[in-house]
Design brief:
By secondary structure, the protein is of the alpha/beta class. 40% of the residues lie in helices and 18% in strands. It is built from 13 helices and 10 strands. An 8-stranded parallel beta barrel has the order 1-2-3-4-5-6-8-9, surrounded by 6 helices. The structure holds (3S,4R)-3-hydroxy-2-oxopiperidin-4-yl beta-D-xylopyranoside. (3S,4R)-3-hydroxy-2-oxopiperidin-4-yl beta-D-xylopyranoside (XIL) binds next to loops.
Length: 313
Amino acid sequence: TGVLNTLAQSIGKKYFGSATDNPEFTDTAYMAILESSEFGQITPGNSMKWDATEPEQNTFTFTQGDAVVSIAKESNKIVRGHNLVWQSQLPSWVSSGGFTAAELTSVIQNHISNVVGEKSVNAWDVVNEPFNSDGSYVSDVFYNTLGSDFIPIALTAARAADPNALLCINDYGIEGSGTKSTAMQNLVKTLKADGVPIDCIGFESHFILGEVPTDLQSNIEAFTALGVVVMITELDIRMTLPETAAQLEQQKTDYQTVVSACAAVDDCVGITVWDFTDKYSWVPSTFSGQGAACPYDDNLIKKPAFDGIVAGL
Ligand code: XIL
C-alpha cells in the first residue's frame, strides 16, 4: 500500500498526486502504481488542453479526458483539470487569431462552458502561465486581443460552468519571491478587489537540482495571506545526466525542502509531481541533457527522492 497520500492527509493536506498521460495507460506496471493508494489525485498532462478538447471550433472531443476521469473514479482519486486558457498547445484556429475582442470573449466562454460543464473535477487551472519572467503579460492571442481582461473573462466563465470547482491560476517562476511572484500577487489582489472568482494559485515547481528557492515557504504564505490557497502542481527536480549518487542525495534533500514548505502552511493544500517516474517525465525532451527529475526511476523503482517526500510530510 502507498504512503504518500496517506501521509499528506494525516498532516491536513487534501492530497498527494501525480500527473499522468493517456499513452501511459497501456503500461500495466506503471498503472499499478498510479492507481494505488500512493496517490490521491491525478492531473492529465495533456488530454484536457485546448488542442485536445476543441481541435476545431465548437467541436469538442473528450475521449481522452474522460479516460483520465474514469481512472480517477475507479481508483478513488480527485482530478485537477489542466488547463483552460494558455498560449501553448492551442489549435491553430485559436492561435492564428483574427478575432475581435467580442469574438474571442465568446470563444473563451464557449470553450470553458463546454469543457468544464462536462467534467467534475476538484480544481481547474483556468489560466496557465500568464506572465513573463519580468512580470509583464505573455504576448499571445488572448492578451493581444483582450488585454488582461481575458483572465476575469475566463474565471467568470469557469465559475458559471462549475460553481464547486476551485479556480486557479498556475505558473512557474513564482515559487520564490521576486518580480514574477509580485506580479502574480498583484493580479490576485486586483481580481479579489474586482470580485472576480479566484480560489487558488498553482506553483508549478519545475526546479533545478540545488536551486529550490530558499524563501519558498514565506512566498507561499504571501499568497495565502491574500485569501487564496496554494497547490504545488507540477513538481519535478531535474539534474544534468547521467545522474550520480551524490546528485540523487541532493535531490532527496530538495524534494524534502519543497514538501516541508507546503506541509508547514495550512493553506498549501496539495502537492502533485509532474509524473512520478523518470520513464514518462517531460524533462529530457524539453531540457537538453537534463533528466532524472522524478521520485521513481526509469524502472519504476523508488529513488532517494521518494524518501525525501516522505520525510517532508
Ligand atoms: C507539458 C507536458 O508534460 C508535455 O507532455 C507536453 O509536450 C508539453 O506540456 N507547464 C505546464 C504543463 O503547465 O502543461 C506542461 O506539460 C509542462 C510545463
